[in-house]
From TrEMBL:
Belongs to the prokaryotic molybdopterin-containing oxidoreductase family. This is Formate dehydrogenase, A chain. SUPFAM superfamilies: ADC-like, Formate dehydrogenase/DMSO reductase, domains 1-3. Its cofactor is Mo-bis(molybdopterin guanine dinucleotide); [4Fe-4S] cluster. Residues 649-705 form the Molybdopterin dinucleotide-binding domain. InterPro entries: Asp_de-COase-like_dom_sf, MopB_CT_YdeP, MoPterin_dinucl-bd_dom, Mopterin_OxRdtase, Mopterin_OxRdtse_a_bac, Prok_molybdopt-oxidoreductase, YdeP_MopB. The lineage of its organism: Bacteria, Bacillati, Actinomycetota, Actinomycetes, Mycobacteriales.
Length: 766
């Protein structure tokens, strides 16, 4: 069998630009999936993986966290981008000791993210010791010894940081936090800090639980679905099938997005006849091309208009029964909402008054309303307030805890929600820590730990010197790349448990370890036989995932194995946690989870049900709100938005169609018409004209950040201007190439999430 050689590096000069597409998926998507599969893993593995994706006895797609339709797990359900995620992991290309002997650290650091990721699966534990120019092989036992020696030498466990990315299974996340808390710290930053933290913070305030309140059947039943700050055609393609069904049942969809994303316009389902030869289905009935950062204003305007509609036809808009029985804080909210100035809302959002009125009218009249959102909302300075304001609108209309209505934060990584449920959080509540202590006879630390941004600050300031990551690509995922890179390099030890090579392996601490691990698709054999793991999707369904592929190397260890083996060495053989039993039989881990994590009782039996089981959600299940008031809270939020200084643009950093976060699959952003390159900046015709620039011109993007001592500048070079339909004053470019532009302190209020979607920049012609 031949596996294609890795792709060559990027030549941005061959960039091609064609008009953006107005629909998503369709035949090209299926062809792309199969082609990627065959290139990376050959026919047999392609068959074994793609047709086992999201099936009852198969593995959970490592793509996004969009759920399966209950009862449908028996059908192969996969999408183009899920297939790419699988091909990326199941590739037969490998990089072992010879690769690292050939490529020095200096060589690797010159390579692009694309090149690093394309080299293949990691096969051996590798070490870089002080003064080494190359990584060299190390045995697992010696690798654990290096970690234990460093951790034991720290003056306090709080000088170590333990990151988690969202592919980690429930079982390994639970064990990982048990290890970290047994060792003695809560320093557990995770990718969620950069992702839906704003959603968790806002929803905890308003409804008392940081998770979405709807399921797939709710979306299928809704009358009105708002989709704000999300690009499902690329990032959650299976959501389009759900939207298609909702539309078929009569739902109206309103998209709120500065860009006209293809998947929000029309969907041709490749698994249906009309999707292959017909014109597919239209998705958005209305498209609000909002200005970046204008959503808080929009929802405040809607709040005001709902009260006015209630005045005009009393008893028809405000759900007074719900409001009286289940909510608190209406009076203050009403006073604030009525005082909102609609001219300001128009200015801030860039929308017309009639668009805003039509949206409010649709919300006022629909019986079942759902609001979905993702990174366009959460990665904003006012992300938390915006989500609180969306909730205000829904609460006023009683859209909580009834079929077809509610809040729907659409999660990213396939188990990012589960990792949090399992205790990966720097500030888990006392109830969880007490349950851990009772289960294991340990003493979990109570002092809150560092989140992602605080972890970088701690390393930068010399307050932390050991960094370990369970997956992910910390230096490329986080903001302010230069600061973060030097923070990581200043550590005494960095440890990356990974499937594939990435920039975080290259930005190595004085001593650095790469520990290769099994992925979702790989068969996981332990002393107790073949193991499976579980994950929780965006709608709180927990189900099993079982890998089938033969691992590419005998040296790979599962995350559970790595954590347990390290724990025994770090904590000693008499530690009360039964690490060896956990290692050998993951059912034993689930037994402990059953006792510690509320809602996971009897997990081993329930996770084996055909659709798994759904975690409790009091607002959804019984209109109970575990908030400080015991009711759903209306909130009052100051109106603010992103102003565009003269001659400047507000830049959002987003994903192309050919990437998974920091992993670059290819160089095309098919739906947006960008081919063979990534260093582009999308700018409106009006700004191009006003600033005397031209389409196709090469520019540097310079971000400007006011400080006490003046304006700090950050720069990325040689980006090509692409004229694109985005609101005047706004621009868009791809992440992670533009992460150097996002200042570390540019974070969302309260959630501390980097503001990746609104950076003030200027374009400097080369
Ligand atoms: N194939 C693929 N799938 C993925 C991922 C991937 O990289 N590749 N990543 C996964 C992860 S971890 C996540 S979190 C999700 C991310 O899923 P998305 O949130 O869809 O990802 P982004 O590309 O960041 O897209 C943000 C969207 O918000 C819009 N936007 C930007 N600013 C604003 C604003 O101010 N207001 C509004 N209303 N909209 C705005 C942008 O135009 C864009 O459409 O996808 C997950 N799934
Ligand atoms: N500017 C900007 N920055 C952003 C964002 C943005 O929109 N704009 N989005 C943010 C968001 S939403 C997120 S979630 C973060 C993503 O942050 P991360 O989760 O840290 O990044 P990923 O790119 O998903 O991580 C990819 C790496 O994970 C490893 N990996 C893959 N599968 C497995 C596995 O099964 N086990 C283990 N141990 N390792 C595995 C591989 O080595 C791979 O290189 O980035 C954030 N950063
Ligand atoms: Mo994410």
């Amino acid at each position: 069998m031949t596996i294609d050689a890795p792709k060559n590096d990027i030549d941005e000069s061959t960039l091609e630009v064609t008009p953006p597409k107005h629909y998503a998926a369709g035949v090209p998507a299926v062809l792309v999936s199969l082609k990627r599969g065959l290139e990376e893993m050959g026919a047999v593995r392609t068959g074994r993986t793609l047709f086992r994706l999201n099936q009852r006895n198969g593995f959970d797609c490592p793509g996004c966290a969009w759920p399966e339709t209950p009862g449908h797990r028996k059908h192969a359900e996969f999408c183009e981008n899920g297939a790419k995620a699988v091909a990326e992991e199941a590739t037969l290309r490998t990089i072992g000791p010879e690769f690292f002997a050939e490529h020095s650290l200096a060589d690797l650091s010159e390579r692009t993210d694309f090149w690093l990721g394309q080299q293949g699966r990691l096969t051996h534990p590798m070490v870089l010791r002080p003064g080494d120019t190359h990584y060299s092989p190390i045995s697992w036992d010696d690798a654990y010894r290096v970690i234990v020696d460093h951790l034991k030498a720290l003056p306090t466990p709080d000088e170590a940081i333990f990151y988690t990315s969202g592919r980690t299974s429930n079982e390994s996340a639970f064990l990982y936090q048990t290890l970290i808390r047994s060792y003695g710290t809560n320093n557990m930053p995770d990718c969620s800090n950069m992702c839906h933290e704003s959603s968790g913070t806002a929803l905890s305030d308003t409804i008392g639980i940081g998770k979405g309140s709807v399921s797939v059947p709710d979306l299928e039943k809704a009358d009105l679905i708002l989709i704000a700050g999300q690009n499902p055609g690329t990032n959650h393609p299976r959501m389009l099938s759900t939207l298609e069904k909702a539309k078929g049942n009569g739902a109206k969809v309103i998209a709120i997005n500065p860009l006209h994303e293809a998947g929000l316009q029309r969907f041709k389902d490749p698994q249906k006849v009309n999707g292959v030869i017909g014109s597919g289905v239209g998705i958005a009935d209305e498209y609000l091309q909002i200005r970046i950062g204008g959503d808080l204003a929009l929802f405040q305007g809607i709040g005001k208009l709902l009260f006015e509609a209630e005045d005009a036809a009393p008893g028809t808009v405000v759900d007074s029964l719900f409001v009286e029985e289940h909510t608190a804080g209406l009076e203050d909210f009403e006073k604030h909402a009525r005082a909102v100035d609609l001219d300001t809302v128009v200015d801030a959002s860039g929308l017309t008054l009639s668009q805003i009125r039509a949206t409010a009218d649709a919300i006022a009249k629909a019986d079942k309303v759902i609001i979905c959102w993702a990174m366009g909302i959460t990665q904003q300075r006012h992300g938390v307030d915006t989500i609180r304001e969306m909730t205000n609108v829904l609460l006023l209309r009683g859209m909580m805890g009834k079929p077809g209505a509610g809040v729907c934060p659409v999660r990213g990584h396939s188990n990012v929600q589960g990792d949090r449920t399992m205790g990966i959080w720097e500030q888990m509540p006392e109830s969880f820590l007490a349950a851990m202590d009772a289960e294991f006879g340990i003493e979990s630390p109570r002092k809150h730990g560092y989140d992602t941004v605080d972890a970088i600050r701690a390393m930068r300031d010399g307050k932390a010197s050991v960094f370990m990551a369970m997956g992910g690509n910390f230096v490329r995922a986080t903001s302010d790349s230069e600061v973060t890179e030097s923070a990581l390099r200043s550590c005494d030890l960095t440890v990356q448990v990974s499937t594939k090579l990435n920039r975080s392996h290259v930005m190595a601490g004085k001593t650095a370890l790469i520990l290769p691990t099994l992925g979702r698709t790989d068969r996981d054999m332990q002393a107790g036989g073949r193991q499976n793991v579980s994950v929780e999707d965006s709608m709180s369904m927990v189900h099993l995932s079982r890998g089938r592929l033969t691992p590419v190397s005998d040296e790979l260890r599962s995350e559970v194995a790595i954590i347990s083996e390290l724990a025994v060495k770090l904590l000693g053989p008499s530690h009360p946690v039964p690490w060896n039993e956990f290692h050998h039989d993951y059912d034993r881990i689930r037994e402990s989870i059953s006792r510690v994590v509320p809602g996971c009782e009897n997990m081993n039996a329930r996770v084996r049900l055909p659709d798994g089981f759904q975690l409790p959600h009091p607002p959804r299940d019984s209109r109970e709100f575990p908030t400080t008031t015991g009711k759903a809270n209306f909130t009052v939020n100051e109106l603010d938005w992103e102003r565009v200084p003269a001659g400047r643009l507000v830049l959002q950093t987003m994903r192309s169609h050919d990437q998974y976060n920091t992993t670059i699959y290819g160089l095309d952003d098919r739906y947006r018409g960008i081919k063979n390159g990534r260093k582009v900046v999308l700018v409106s015709a009006a700004d191009i004209a006003e600033q005397g620039l031209r389409d196709g011109q090469l520019v540097d993007i310079v971000s400007e950040w006011p400080t006490d001592s003046g304006v700090e500048e950050r720069r990325v070079s040689e980006f090509r201007i692409v004229e694109y339909d985005t609101p005047k004053g706004n621009a868009a470019a791809y992440y992670p190439e533009t992460n150097p532009l996002v200042p570390l302190d540019h974070v969302a209020a309260r959630s501390n999430t980097p503001v990746s979607k609104a950076v003030v920049v200027r374009l400097e012609p080369r």
